[in-house]
Amino acid sequence: VVRAMAAGTPTPVIFPMSNPSSKSECTPQQALHWSGGAAIVASGSPFPPSTVNGKTIATAQANNCFVFPGVGLAAIAGGCTTVSDAMFYAAAKTLANSVTEDDLAAGKMYPDTDELRSTSAAVAAGVLEAALRDGVARSHALQVHVEQHGNSHASLKNFVAMRMWHPRYAPLVPVRERDATDAGDM
In whole angstroms, what is the distance from residue 115 CA to residue 171 CA? Predict the structure, then answer.
């Protein structure tokens, strides 16, 4: 299948079903090999980079982790009454615009997962732009923010970034054995 696709287009896009990775239709390495290194490959599971013709190519992980956190964050922060098709289109467009030239040169179709928080904030800002255009964003805080700071993408990204959850946990301190024994005597 991959060879036939490569024969019909200079850059075949391959999304093999791959979750779990042990049941993958093909590995990114195989897809790249069968396409002569021309394929753009994304999988649903993480795979290591592949080397083809002396070039290391990153494997993109095509996963909904890039879209749904931003859509959900925008819907909550914006007090959206609905999530429209235009909002999902804005999420996809913002995600596509988050891919850099360096990412593309490395064979990546998506931003690096290390950039997930920033990508989610950008996607949420794009979704809020669409929600404001559609008139479905009803959050008073958002309306005040827009009045004070405008509705540019950067301003909306700041608005949602301030509302993102930051996991901060208290350090775990082991209970000394004596303290645990004394507590049991109570």
Answer: 25
